From TrEMBL:
PROSITE patterns xref list: D_ALA_DEHYDRATASE (PS00169)
Subunit and interaction comment: Homooctamer.
Enzyme Commission code(s) on record: 4.2.1.24
Coiled coil: none
Gene assigned in the entry: hemB
Protein keywords: Heme biosynthesis, Lyase, Magnesium, Metal-binding, Porphyrin biosynthesis, Zinc
Positions of Mg(2+) binding: 238
Presence of keyword Zinc: yes
Binding residue positions for 5-aminolevulinate 1: 210, 222
Residues reported in the UniProt entry to bind Zn(2+): 125, 127, 135
Organism (species): Heliobacterium modesticaldum (strain ATCC 51547 / Ice1)
Pfam families assigned: ALAD (PF00490)
Active site: 200 (schiff-base intermediate with substrate), 253 (schiff-base intermediate with substrate)
High-level lineage: Bacteria, Bacillati, Bacillota, Clostridia, Eubacteriales
Name assigned to this protein: Delta-aminolevulinic acid dehydratase
Amino acid sequence: MKHILSGYPIQRPRRLREKAVLRDMVREFHLRPEDLIYPLFAVPGKDVVNPVSSMPGVCQLSVDNIVKEAVDAYKAGVRAVELFGIPPEKDEVASGAYDPNGIVQEAVKAVKDACPELYVITDVCLCQYTNHGHCGIVNGGCVLNDPSLDYLARTAVSHAEAGADMVAPSDMMDGRVGAIRDSLDEAGFEGVPIMSYSAKYASAFYGPFREAAESSPKWGDRRSYQMDPGNSTEALRETALDIQEGCDIIMVKPGLAYLDIVRRLKETFDLPVAVYNVSGEYSMVKAAAAQGWIDEKRITLEILLSMKRAGADLIISYHAKDAIRWMNE
């Protein structure tokens, strides 16, 4: 009894840390290849490889090279990709987003033809396709919510028709999950899941992505539809609405600065939780590693594991292919 009450020296937590095999056996959280989703950016043309200056190792790729990268990633252990598209032309109504022969639709078909086993998710948004760079239809300097829903739903259906396994609306328009679910079901795609960007914040961490996707707003910002970084409970309201409207997976974006939100969603809702390890997070790691200030492999795996520990079931990450290679070493 004396030893139990006194703790040390009977209780020695270091016993469980002494051997690597035992550390692995008692580890509470594990990062697995199947946890990771690899984003890719499709652009028009042939044999195109455009490096994204702010995201070392990330490139805009023409469809032929998207296929090569997707197949290579699958062979490396990646099981899912998320496709983003940059159209040859942009207009007021984002017609390239729902064009049956649009860039994402073409990429989906090509990837599924080349590698049917690879799970293909598509980003559903309008910002890459509008000439103003906003995520919805604009009139008089305002982003209109309800008129945007039909365009988003048409985009999701066109992706499903091309062969997408899942659609992921990222626009943050109110009601878009319900509109997409209804349209998918009416088109015969009841089995296509929706991964909703449920808690997407108006974050400064998106800068490099906007270079990669060529999606910066031409005026204003996105604070009227993306969430304020100071809010937490609002994430629960947004997510509850998306679940009521029929989403299958909920998501928090960005990752590192919002792990408390990941934890709140995981503890509140009984659905898989995804988190987006966004471009700014990726670029900071790459920049510090290039200076020799950090160990890129160790810090990347530690960051991804922190997202799992917070409650994420799935992680969208530009590190995905490298991380899986490092896990297998």
